[in-house]
Amino acid sequence: xxFIFKTIFRLKKIKVIIVSGKGKSLAVESxxxxxxxxxxxxxxxxxxxxxxxxxxxxxxxxxTNLESxxxxxxxxxxxxxxxLPILVVTHMVEILKEIxxxxxxxxxxxxYGFLVLNFDDKSAVKINDTANxxxxxxxxxxxxxxxxxxxxxxNEGANFKINHNGKSIPIWQDSVGKEHVxxxxxxxxxxxxxxxxxxxxxxxxxxxxK
Length: 210
Fold this sequence. Notes:
Elements: H1 3-11, E1 15-20, H2 24-35, E2 41-45, H3 51-56, E3 59-63, H4 69-81, E4 84-89, H5 99-108, E5 114-118, H6 122-125, H7 128-131, E6 134-139, E7 146-154, E8 157-164, E9 167-173, H8 178-193, H9 198-208
Parallel strand pairs: 1-3, 1-4, 2-3, 4-5, 5-6, 6-7
Antiparallel strand pairs: 7-8, 8-9
Helix pairs in contact: 2-8, 8-9
């Protein structure tokens, strides 16, 4: 990344959301959907934006498990440049070998960044033991900042409630599965960080699954 890229990146206050873990593709799609009406969003897989990208977009959602040293270094530079870096860890099942890289990246995020962590996955929650960042958790278990409850499924899909700070919002999905619920929860966390309220998030998610 050259001087011009870094200067423009900082001047435009580019927001970077890195999504790792099982079900990360679902989360990326969901996060992108709720943000695109308020921000200029681009999704990327295992790569960083180029100069043209940062001239026309202001939020980048990057899907990666940091599988290589090259990818790790690129993501590390981005989180240092961004005024609002967010690392989302959906579910560590099946990617245990990447926990070390994800934890190391979390430690490189400046103190003004955020971690969004799956509360049901203790390997994910432990990531903040060394990073010591502001974190928002999600899951089915009591104690999560964004907690799913009242899950019902039928032939047309699933519906459930997201509970946060004493408030509940209904969510409807035409797909059934735990990872779909996790993606909606993670999306709600990110949306809240970026200033959306629960009603906006619920409506956006409802439109996505129609």
